[in-house]
Amino acid sequence: MADYDRSTGAPWSAEDLAQLRILAAEGTATSVIAVQLNRSEEAIAHRAAQDGINLTAASHNPYDPDTLNR
Known about the structure:
By secondary structure, the chain is mostly helical. Helices cover 44% and strands 0% of the residues. It has 3 helices and no strands.
């Protein structure tokens, strides 16, 4: 029998949505957001699209002096 993922289909709480907005605004990668919210990348992308949240990750290369102050 396959493992059951309890977060599958779980409703989004106001706290989850607030965290999604914050992480997306910071330019956090979708994969990292998924881990932090215990959801799949597809679920993150779907909910972001529903709420008009932009998931385009900004470059945060620590070795690039142009991105140090972002």
